[in-house]
Design goal:
The structure holds 2 protein chains of 2 kinds. Chain A has one domain: Cytochrome p450, CATH 1.10.630. Chain A is built from 16 helices and 10 strands. In chain A, strand 6 and strand 7 form a beta hairpin. In chain A, helix 6 runs antiparallel to helix 8, helix 8 packs antiparallel against helix 12 and helix 9 runs antiparallel to helix 10. The longest helix of chain A is centred in the middle third of the chain and has 32 residues. By secondary structure, chain B is an alpha+beta fold. Chain B has one domain: Alpha-Beta Plaits. In chain B, the strands form 2 sheets. Chain B has a two-stranded antiparallel sheet. Chain B has a two-stranded antiparallel sheet with strand order 2-3. Classes of the chains: A alpha+beta, B alpha+beta. Chains A and B meet through helix 4 and helix 16 of A and helix 1 and helix 2 of B. The structure holds protoporphyrin IX containing FE (HEM). Protoporphyrin IX containing FE binds next to helix 12 and helix 16 of chain A.
Chain lengths: ~400, ~60
């Protein structure tokens, strides 16, 4: 008992800072906790002291455990930022089964492996056209704005049936929504604006359906399977998750490769699709852009690694350090595009594992196998320590990346 | 090797269809797992094992045939 109490009193603040010179590595303090043991206590912004799960095996086990809840409405949930707790306004990423499964299954088909694979030519064209534009334009250019953000935005707009011409509106609101330092009212306003926008779109699809995901949701609203608010909420989740994450993997991945020129050369000089796909998995593992951990709460007492996580206690699964666990990945801090990293948990684990993973993989495969070949002299137009990293983001990355060639 | 899938547990993440498309597919209407081959040949052993290991929902069970 006493040990637990002092562990709680001494709990270090979370999230922890990265080392200044190592923008691609997880915080050293988190790695130190991992070496000490599989479980630790940390202190959040609101003074709560949830468990931090540090190792791959325990993380995977807990994310797959039905006694572990994703429901943000539960009192012990270790929220990364203040929430207003309006239950009706959450999407299925923050719900448990069976509610979660019912909603997730309604939008799973368009993200199935074969359906996504059929999008390859369309994605290749988007990537090629954007590179053409970049090559024809002035340099240096911000890779985030000219390429990393437009690629996944164009793709997800096409899939959902959202007009890309509205991209300034939804990209700006997404940014506010996922910035951890955003004030509560501001975040609520951004979510509200996106929900109203998606609600209007769903309404338009009711009268004029197309061949897209939102039209599919609209027809379910008509059939009474779904409320219009639920449909809009799912639309917000898919739109935001669909472009923010992949955009960060494109820009941060490119920067990581530029900093590891021998790895970049392997990728640039290959025709081997297999090497391209191992490189994608390795960059997902190495960068683990969802860097603030998966957030959960125990619904029953759970015995694990000699400790008891009590019912109602918060749990943070730090998948960034899980993906650097030396028990699972040899020499884990080394970026090696040829390694077999498919067991990584950058997409999470359990029933909430990323719905868009096949799409994200394909986008990244097309990008990584095209960009460096078409611009072989691509380089950063500024020093590493001048680049603004998203330390305050729910998703890690760079705010901008000036490049030239 | 015998393969059993649990459609109720499946969350349609698609890992199985990615690593072992000879054995696993996804339903057209909701992306849930379809077992194409319940007794895959020895040559597919390693990939089917990997598919079961990667399944985030624990929906794939392997047994000896
Ligand atoms: C490289 C890019 C991506 C990364 C690293 C990523 C990462 C993740 C992670 C870690 C989760 C699990 C959340 C949790 O367990 O708490 C997740 C869930 C999710 N992702 Fe992604 N994601 C990416 C791209 C995408 C794309 C392109 C989409 C397309 C719409 C998407 C849609 C979703 C959705 C809907 C969920 C919620 C699933 C659920 O709760 O059942 N993601 N993602």
């Amino acid at each position: 008992m006493t040990t637990t109490h002092s562990a709680e009193a001494d709990a270090p603040e979370f999230p922890m800072p990265r080392a200044a010179r190592c923008p691609f590595d997880p915080p050293p303090e988190a790695k130190a906790k991992q070496e000490e043991g599989p479980l630790a206590r940390v202190r959040l912004w609101d003074g709560r002291t949830p468990w931090l799960v540090t190792r791959y095996a325990e993380q995977r086990a807990l994310m797959a455990d039905p006694r572990v809840s994703s429901d943000i409405r539960r009192p012990g949930y270790p929220s990364p930022a203040p929430v207003t707790g309006e239950g009706s306004k959450i999407s299925f990423i923050l719900m448990d089964d069976p509610e979660h499964a019912r909603l997730r299954r309604m939008v799973t088909a368009p993200f199935a492996v074969r359906r996504v694979a059929a999008m390859r030519p369309a994605i290749q064209k988007i990537v090629d056209d954007l590179i053409d534009e970049m090559l024809a334009g002035p340099k240096p250019v911000d890779l985030v704005e000219a390429f990393a953000l437009p690629v996944p935005s164009l793709v997800i707009c096409e899939l959902l049936g959202v007009p890309y011409s509205d991209h300034d509106f939804f990209q700006d609101n997404s940014k506010v929504m996922i910035r951890q330092t955003t004030a509560v009212e501001q975040r609520q306003a951004a979510i509200g604006a996106l929900a109203a926008y998606l609600d209007e779109l769903v309404g338009a699809k009711l009268t004029e359906p197309g061949d897209d995901l939102l039209s599919g949701l609209a027809s379910r609203v008509e059939a009474g399977e779904l409320t219009r608010a639920e449909a809009a909420q799912m639309g917000v989740l898919l739109l935001v998750a669909g472009h923010e994450t992949t955009a960060n993997m494109i820009a941060l991945g490119t920067l990581a490769l530029l900093e590891h020129p021998e790895q970049l050369a392997r990728l640039r000089d290959t025709d081997d699709e297999k090497l391209v796909s191992t490189a994608v998995e390795e960059l997902l593992r190495y960068l683990n852009i969802t860097h603030n951990g998966r957030r959960r709460v125990a619904t029953e007492d759970i015995e694990i690694a000699g400790e008891t996580i009590k019912a109602g206690e918060g749990i943070i699964l730090a998948n960034d350090i899980g993906n650097r666990d030396p028990e699972v990945f040899a020499d884990p801090d080394r970026l090696d595009v040829g390694r077999d990293a498919r067991r990584h948990i950058a997409f999470g684990f359990g029933v909430h594992q990323c719905l868009g993973q096949s799409l994200a993989r394909l986008e990244l495969q097309v990008v990584y196998s095209t960009l460096y070949r078409r611009i072989p002299t691509l380089r950063a137009a500024t020093e590493l320590d001048e680049i603004p990293f998203k330390h305050d983001g729910a998703v890690y990355g760079v705010y901008e990346l000036p490049v030239t060639w | 090797m015998k393969v059993v899938v649990d459609e109720d547990r499946c969350c349609g993440a698609g890992s199985c269809a990615m690593v072992a498309p000879e054995v696993f597919d996804q339903r057209e209407d909701d992306g849930i797992v379809v077992l194409l081959d319940a007794e895959p040949t020895d040559g597919l052993r390693a990939t089917v094992r990997e598919a079961a290991d990667l399944c985030p929902a624990g929906a794939i069970t392997l047994g000896d045939a």
